[in-house]
């Protein structure tokens, strides 16, 4: 049995250091690298790609709404054609930079509000999927397990990895608890590992009301900007390995 562990990375700017990418990279198998719209910069993109390449970690693009001030977590009312354009721009830039540095682009994972809005909207999901297909139809889209994005991607012929979160709590409908609510983030590494092992072993996650919600799990996300990100990444890597589960980047089933 194997599972992919992904992490949002490369989100620092000259004014703001976000997370410890160097410490987390050895613990994961896929890196979602910011493309400059919510965090990061061309220089940070370059260094994060090179870091991923050194550790044999799959390189992914992490496109977002153009929202540096809000770190891409504020919802924006953009037309579908504009969402297509910003995703096309960011993914195209990441693919070109990765290939220039001797790496290849493996996947795309939308960030923050773009990710969450698309999970509920077939129109936004279609705009994102079309942009990814326009760049490279061999790419894999990482999307919230059971979401509209997963359904749209598969209906349009784009490979999709269904994602669950190690460090976030879940609502009874399978959505993530909004960050504005208490308990949206799990408090420590032990809680995150407990949730991950339960998901992998049972195919379900315990929601905030105590019920078990079925989830398909192709990849597990760790947020690199969280206060306990390094401890969570290390605990999950060690816990899964001890359970006999191999950590490797997601591949499309034959």
In short:
The chain has 254 residues and is an alpha/beta fold. The chain is built from eight helices and ten strands. The chain has one domain (2-247): TIM Barrel (Alpha-Beta Barrel), CATH 3.20.20.370.
Task: Kindly describe this structure.
The protein is α/β, with parallel strands linked by helices. The protein has a single domain (2-247), classed as TIM Barrel (Alpha-Beta Barrel). 38% of the residues lie in helices and 18% in strands. It has eight helices and ten strands. Strand 2, helix 2 and strand 3 form a beta-alpha-beta unit. The mean pLDDT is 94.
Features:
254 residues, alpha/beta, TIM Barrel, seven-stranded parallel beta barrel, 10 strands, 38% helix, globular
Q: How many whole angstroms does the radius of gyration measure? A: 17 Å
- Biggest sheet: strand arrangement: 1-2-3-4-5-6-9
Beginning-to-end CA distance, first to last residue: 16 Å
- The residue fraction in helices comes out at 25-40%
> Which class do the helix and strand fractions yield?
alpha/beta
Topology, element by element:
Blueprint: E1 2-9, H1 21-24, E2 30-34, H2 42-54, E3 58-62, H3 80-100, E4 105-108, H4 112-120, H5 122-135, E5 140-144, H6 148-155, E6 160-165, H7 189-202, E7 204-206, E8 212-214, E9 219-223, H8 229-242, E10 246-247
Parallel strand pairs: 1-2, 1-9, 1-10, 2-3, 3-4, 4-5, 5-6, 6-9
Antiparallel strand pairs: 7-8
């Amino acid at each position: 049995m194997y599972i992919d562990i992904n992490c949002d990375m490369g989100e620092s700017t000259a004014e703001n250091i976000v997370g410890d990418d160097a410490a987390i990279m050895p613990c994961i198998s896929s890196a979602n690298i910011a493309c400059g719209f919510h965090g990061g910069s061309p220089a940070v993109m370059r260094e994060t790609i090179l870091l991923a390449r050194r550790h044999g970690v799959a390189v992914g693009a992490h496109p977002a709404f153009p929202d540096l001030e809000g770190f891409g977590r504020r919802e924006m009312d953009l037309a579908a054609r504009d969402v297509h354009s910003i995703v096309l721009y960011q993914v195209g830039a990441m693919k070109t930079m990765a290939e220039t540095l001797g790496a290849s682009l493996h996947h795309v994972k939308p960030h923050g509000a773009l990710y969450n809005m698309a999970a509920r909207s077939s129109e936004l999901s279609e705009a994102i999927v079309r942009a990814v297909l326009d760049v490279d139809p061999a790419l894999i889209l990482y999307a919230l397990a059971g979401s509209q994005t997963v359904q749209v991607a598969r209906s349009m012929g784009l490979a999709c990895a269904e994602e669950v979160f190690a460090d976030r709590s879940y609502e009874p409908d399978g959505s993530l608890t909004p960050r504005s609510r208490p308990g949206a983030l799990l408090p420590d590494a032990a809680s995150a590992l407990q949730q991950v092992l339960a998901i992998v072993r049972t195919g379900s996650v315990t929601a905030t009301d105590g019920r078990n919600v079925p989830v398909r799990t192709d990849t597990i996300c760790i947020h690199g900007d969280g206060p306990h990100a390094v401890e969570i990444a290390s605990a999950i890597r060690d816990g899964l390995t001890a359970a006999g589960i191999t950590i490797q980047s997601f591949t499309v089933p034959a």
